[in-house]
Amino acid sequence: MGEDIGQCNFKFSPQPILTGLAEFDVEGKLEERDLFLCASSVLFCNAMIEASPFSSLEHARSFARNLWFNTLPIQSWLDTFSAHRHLSDAITFARGDIRMGLLQYLSEYRKKFGFGFVTSTNLHLSQQILEEVQARYQNSLQVELETASREEFTLIERRLTKLWERLSSEKTLEVSEETGEVVQDSMLEDDVAPDSSDEIVSKGHQPSIVTFDLNKTREENDIC
Q1: Which of 55, 148, 220, 224 has the greatest number of C-beta atoms within 10 Å?
Q2: What is the pTM of this model?
C-alpha cells in the first residue's frame, strides 16, 4: 500500500460475561428487522439469523464478534458505517470554535478515508469528539479502518444488548401471562432503537476504498 503503518495489535479477547438478562435463553430465530438495527449489513443479519437461537447474550455477542472481525468482507463494514452521520449530529450540539472544528473535519475526514467518521462517544460530548477526530485524522487508511471497525462493533454490542433485553422481557411477559403472574411495567421495553450516540439514517453514497478488495475480509486484505 506504500504506507508505513507500524506494528498493529489487532486482537479481540473475550469480553466479561454479563449477568441477569444476559443469561436468559431467547428461543427462536432472530428477525432481520431487529438485527438490521444492530448492523445495517445484509450479510451480518443473515449470518446471525442462521446461527440463532443463541443460548445467552454472551453467546450472541461472541458469535457477532467473530463474524464482524474475522468473517465479513470489508464492504459489510462500509455498509454499516454508512448508516451513521456522527459528525453531522455532533455539530448540532456544538458551539463556537468546537462547532467550527467539527465542520472542518466533516468533509475532510470522508475525503481522506472514503467513509464517514464512526465513534461510540456520546454525541453531546462535542469537545471530546473533536479531539478524537483530530487525532484519528492523522491515521493511515489501514489504521483508521481498523479503528472505525472497533468503534462500530462497540455500537453493535450495545444494540445487541438492547435487543436481548427486549426479547427477554417479552418472553418473561409471555410466561407470566400463562401463569397469571403480574409483570411490572418496568419490564416492558420499547422496540430496539438507536440512541443519540448512534442514530441510524438512510444510506447515501456508498464509500469506495480502492486500495482494498471490499469483497474480502480484514485478514485477506492483510489488515493486521
Answers
A1: 148
A2: 0.72
